[in-house]
Design goal:
Order of helices and strands: HHHHHHHHHHHHHHHHH
CATH superfamily: MFS general substrate transporter like domains
Distance between the termini: 18 Å
Radius of gyration: 19 Å
CATH architecture: Up-down Bundle
Number of strands: 0
CATH class: Mainly Alpha
Strand content: under 5%
Low-confidence stretches: 185-191, 378-382
């Protein structure tokens, strides 16, 4: 059964998506604060971010296969409520062990909420378009977040970041109580789901690889700029520009839904993301760093929107997309720790080289997905 969320439901999904995809916006500020303000080394800071994402993966894995049998609204409320409490606790912690545990708990809450959100969007009448709308909301949020939080953190320390996170999660929980689309009717139906085609799995694998590049590089985008002496004001300007650029890709993806092939977009996106990552991590002057960094996240948002629509078209049950946090964040979860380890032992240039290799893996997955679609004779777009 398809879902028609209405205006209030769409607004609730927008807020829930912003809360659930917080890592896509906040990782450079998050890891940067843990290094600069909390005095963890890059590997430890990356570990904490990875533990958050691992918690999200675990929650999503547990929920994805059950999403058609539970109330998505209740899952979203409980998940974001738990995340709000965990981030609130982090404002009072400074030791690695307790902070690690709280990061895992926060990740579990966010993963549950995002599974409910993406599973609901996947079963909507127009999943590509609705995902584009929530992506546009994420772009607006990114501008506000990236413009405000660096200054707050500089004045008040890492605790200020976790206050912002806790407030966002609390708002998402409240909006879910009030207006999250009710999926009870869809869940009440006892239907036998068709097998998920290989093209959907391959598309998800490609996005997982892109998520690994995204989190690995994005986590240290602020740090690499600081290490090269670009200065706080210049780096903050880049982050604000990144947020402004992020306003465009989701809306553009909605407009181009029926004009571009989803599989062509994903292939180009994988290559472009890897090249931008290489520039960010190897540039010795500010101009190429700033240019590449300002559009880096936008490539992921644009590509992910098309990939989401493609996968939803291949798997109308919504099962695979309800597992988006598990599969997508399986890549994201590795990224901060892998990136921190590479930086600690091999330097920032190693991140650029690793991004090229992983980008090639993503490209191969998307190519195979296209071959599978062609073999089955299905439409390769959302």
């Amino acid at each position: 059964m398809t879902i028609r969320p209405g205006r209030a439901g769409t607004a609730a999904l927008m807020v829930a998506h912003c809360a659930g995809m917080i890592d896509l916006v906040a990782l450079p500020v998050w890891v940067g604060a843990l290094v600069a303000q909390s005095h963890f080394d890059p590997q430890q800071a990356g570990l904490l971010a990875s533990l958050f994402l691992i918690g999200a993966v675990a929650a999503s894995l547990g929920l994805a296969s059950r999403m058609q049998r539970v109330r998505a609204r209740g899952v979203a409320v409980a998940g974001y409520g738990l995340a709000a409490l965990a981030f609130g606790a982090l404002t009072q912690l400074d030791a690695l062990g307790p902070m690690a545990l709280a990061h895992v708990v926060a990740g579990v809450g966010v993963g549950a909420g995002l599974s409910a959100t993406h599973g609901t969007i996947a079963r909507s009448v127009q999943p590509h378009r609705l995902f584009a709308y929530v992506g546009m909301a994420l772009g607006v949020f990114a501008v506000i977040f990236l413009g405000a939080t660096p200054g707050l953190i500089a004045m008040h320390g890492t605790a200020a970041l976790f206050v912002v996170f806790a407030v966002l999660m609390a708002i998402a929980a409240l909006m879910s109580v009030v207006a999250f689309p009710d999926t009870a009717a869809a869940q009440g139906q006892r239907t036998v789901a068709a097998p998920i085609p290989s093209a959907a799995w391959l598309g998800m694998a490609g996005i997982c690889a892109m998520a690994l590049v995204q989190s690995m590089v994005f986590s240290f985008l602020e740090r690499v700029g600081a290490e090269r002496g670009f200065g706080l004001e210049a780096i903050t300007g880049v982050l604000i520009a990144l947020g402004l650029v992020n306003l465009a890709p989701a809306g553009l993806a909605a407009w181009l839904e029926n004009r571009f092939s989803a599989l062509h977009v994903t292939r180009i996106g994988a290559v472009l993301q890897a090249l931008l990552a290489f520039v960010i991590m190897t540039a010795s002057s500010f101009a190429p760093y700033a240019a590449a960094a300002s559009v880096f996240a936008a490539v992921m948002i644009f590509t992910h929107t098309f990939a989401f629509g493609h996968i939803a078209a291949q798997d109308r049950s919504g099962r695979l997309l309800a597992a988006t946090p598990a599969i997508l964040m399986a890549g994201s979860a590795i990224g901060p720790l892998l990136g921190g380890t590479l930086v600690k032992f091999l330097g920032y240039e190693a991140l650029g080289a690793a991004a090229l290799v992983i980008g090639l893996v993503a490209l191969i997955c998307f190519h195979w997905a296209g071959a599978d679609v062609a073999e089955r004779g299905t439409v390769p777009s959302a």
